[in-house]
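Ticket #4471: structure export looks truncated?
Reporter: QA, pipeline team
Priority: medium

Steps to reproduce: submit the single chain below to the structure queue and open the exported record.
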Amino acid sequence: MTKREWRQEMKKRLGRMTAVGRRHASVRVLKKLYRISAFQDASTVLFYAALRDEVDTFPAIRRALKLGKRVALPCIGTAKGRMFIREIHDLKRDLVKGPFGIMEPGEKLPRMRKSQLDLVLCPALAFDLGGTRLGRGGGYYDRFLKSLKRGTKVVGLAFRCQRVARLPRKPHDARVHEIIAG
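Actual output as written to the record:
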């Protein structure tokens, strides 16, 4: 299948999940996340603000803040395809709706350098067994992940239905180091 066909297929699979099913699966994924050393040892974590059909990261963001970790979320810049990060301290106060309707840190919050990240949690429509991720087609995460410093751990969070044997991969496609699915 092509990337376009995989995107259509994954949207169908995700569309068949119930809200309760997504909630239970998100809890399973986050429990696994909390147990990995990359999360436990990280002092600075880049999360993503979950869309309705993604693993809900908001409980993990609250937990990380409570544990005293530095927490960042992505922002989409005005330049095409550019993603940068800002540090947050409070989920309710610090997030605003971004250009694509995704919650992101407000513009008054401090930017953070990629070099400060220990762990990056990233979403996708699908992940394959080799760590290839299929995003939504904008290339924001691919460009961002390729620019990270060596040694920054990248973990994909997914529902079981988002795991596939093999996805089409191009040279510009970024891979994740680990996938946590539930």
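Status: closed, not a bug. The export was complete when the record was re-opened. Leaving a note from the reviewer for reference: The chain has one domain: 3-173.
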